[in-house]
Specification:
It is a single chain. By secondary structure, the chain is α+β, with helices and mostly antiparallel strands. The chain has one domain. The protein is built from two helices and eight strands; from the N terminus they run ααββββββββ. The N and C termini lie far apart (42 Å). Bound molecules: zinc ion. Zinc ion (ZN) binds next to loops.
């Protein structure tokens, strides 16, 4: 049911015939979002989320105007080229897939299907590739391959992959409280 809604309405151009009014559309949106939130509250874990800055004061320590590049080990911008590098830390809930688990084979009524589990979070805050999160054990990860599930152009859920950042990376110098 949900998948059907997602497919038919991902650009907001096709209206579903069984959604006669915007009011009922709002109802669906609230229902789906509250269900997503509930699932995450039950099974997710809290992490510190750092949103990467793409706008702001250029880093005077390392920014190379000619090559349009920052230094990866810069303590002022953490390799972003923008002073501070990241916005203030935010606690968010995420459902994380063990990186060792690449795919799961499901056996259901004799039918074999292969599922590729994805990490995910709810519709807000809006995450982007190269954002970072920090686990309770202070493991730090890049967020990559962000894929939002949309309904009428509104985000319901954001799926993503994770890449562990090496301990030697300057990213580990960012204070997260
Ligand atoms: Zn810098």
């Amino acid at each position: 049911m949900v998948d059907e809604i997602l497919q038919n309405n991902d650009k907001g151009t096709e209206e579903l015939s069984y959604l006669p009014s915007a009011d009922i559309g709002d109802f669906f949106l609230r229902e789906i979002r509250s269900r997503e939130k509930f699932i995450l509250e039950m099974g997710g874990e809290t992490v510190k989320y750092l949103k990467r800055r793409f706008e702001g004061t250029k880093c005077s320590v390392c920014w190379d105007e000619v090559r349009q590049q920052a230094e990866n080990d810069c303590i002022s911008c953490f390799g972003t080229g923008i002073v501070g590098g990241y916005y203030d830390v935010l606690d968010i809930k995420v459902s994380l897939v063990n990186p060792a688990v690449k795919q799961i084979t499901m056996q259901d009524h004799g039918m074999k299907s292969i599922i590729q589990p994805k990490s995910w979070t709810i519709w807000e805050p809006e995450i982007s590739n190269k954002d970072i999160f920090v686990t309770k054990m202070n493991k730090r990860f890049w967020i990559v391959n962000v894929t939002p599930s949309l309904w009428r152009g509104l985000i319901l859920r954001q799926s993503f992959d994770t890449e562990l950042i090496e301990q030697s990376n300057i990213i580990y110098k960012i204070p997260v409280g």
